[in-house]
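Think of the structure tokens as a kind of shorthand, similar to the way a musician reads notation: each symbol stands for something richer, in this case the local conformation of the backbone. In the example below we present two proteins back to back. Begin with the first one, reading the sequence and then the tokens, and try to describe in your own words what changes along the chain.
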Amino acid sequence: MRKPTVSTTHPPFDLDAARIDVWPLRLEAPAAVIECFAAVLDAQERARRDRFAFQRLRDSFALSRGALRALLGRYLDIAAEDVAFRTGSKGKPCLRGDTNLRFNLSHSGGLGLFAFAREVEIGADLEVFRPLADLGDIARRYFCREEFEELMKLDARQREDAFFLCWTRKEAYLKAVGNGLAAPLDSFRVTLEPGQEARMLHVEDDSEAARRWTLHDLSVAPGFAAALAYKAAPREIRLHPVREPADLLGA
């Protein structure tokens, strides 16, 4: 499997079916920058933003949704405010119109992750590493039996890393499928040991179905676990450096 490449120069927005683009973005910015992103939101998005009780959450929503629009606009060659969304048959947001562009996003710990692909549904998940006092209980409840048993055999330091590797891989798969929690986390199995290749092992006890899926781990930033999932042969991953929101205003 090809490893993610890291873009160190300002990239073009040409995206073909052989590649997936991934953009990490800090979700903090000066008020003037936040207002620039808020200005491209539609009425429904502004209403969602205003329902958050705390200003930091309103700001984070404006940045993440505005950044998604800014990036989609560049791939589609239209203005950010002209990007139009609809809800797919399974409830997953997608683009209106005749386009094969697919996207997914995630955020955690003040960082956002935006993934873009052609012709294939994609799932992305990001989690900041953090101590969990009830890690074992969460794994017992949500992981499949084999994953839980494998996790609990690891020493304490490896166990925390493995938990978040497993969680992001599973969430990325669910987001690619578009079912959310309608597909239980224990209905499929992924690899989880640190240093082990990310891959699906079975989907509802079907190993052949699992082989149709590709998983990637992403080294987005220190202290974060991140994963991509899509139902296709492995593609090249173009992973951009972590960027500030203001960078996208001049993209």
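Once you have a description of the first chain, move to the second and do the same.
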Amino acid sequence: MLNRCALILRPARPFIEWARNLDDSGIVPSAEGEQTVYLLPEYDDDADALELLSKMFDVLFEMQLDGWHTDESAWPRNRTFAMFREWFSIEFHSVVEDMCDYPIVDDEYA
């Protein structure tokens, strides 16, 4: 078991509407589609998980926005933790098992 927790963010209605209004391609994110899993530090309880998220939400928010649209001028301004919680469905998982027999490699730094 890894000394991490897993966080899954799924786009909620405000994120989907923001993406829909970017262009007329008809391509929009889906809450049921493939999502990014973030490995975060372990937490003890739900209150600790939210505290952890409140300290990291800005980076996660930017990663989600950038994953959909790289033009920062189109990103919403004055992003807050409350806004983050409205824009994403948040799923924490406290148990993360590594079933592989080889090291984890971060492609960004490889």
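Compare your description with these statements about the second chain. The radius of gyration is 15 Å.
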